[in-house]
Amino acid sequence: MTETLEIVTFRLKPSTEAGFVANNGVMTDWLARQPGFLSRHLGKRDDSTWVDVLRWQSMKQAQAAADRIMAEIGDSEALQAIDPATIDMRHAEVVLAG
Predict the structure, then answer these.
(1) In the beta sheet, which residues pair with residue 86?
(2) I need a surface site. Which of 36, 41, 49, 62 has the fewest CB within 10 A?
(3) Which domains occur in the chain, in start order?
(4) Cβ atoms < 10 Å from Cβ of 92
């Protein structure tokens, strides 16, 4: 298996940042229970774009989780705060780790 990075960028709906941050534990806890999940880093750029970088044991496991997340926790305040029109999800195989 080749480790995979999942890089997701998005913006939040107006006036939802406080709820997004305060309730993001739901997403972190859900991810921790997913097969193949290794780590997560969430950041915010100066232009208010959020960047979520997840590390998975394999592409297959990353895609399986992506296929299930909305059905399982899509109604959470954290996920509802995300503007779906702004989501950009990409995957990359890890070729070097330090």
Answers:
(1) none
(2) 41
(3) 4-93 (3.30.70.100)
(4) 11
- Pick from 92, 35, 28, 40: nearest CA to 61: 35
The pTM score is 0.93
Alpha-carbon span 48 to 60, nearest angstrom: 30
Task: Give the residue from 71, 76, 74 showing the smallest Cα distance to 19.
Answer: 76
Closest CA to 77 of 31, 33, 35, 15: 15
Rounded average pLDDT over 34-43:
98
Copy the structure tokens of residue 48.
Answer: 């208010």
d(CA 70, CA 2): 25
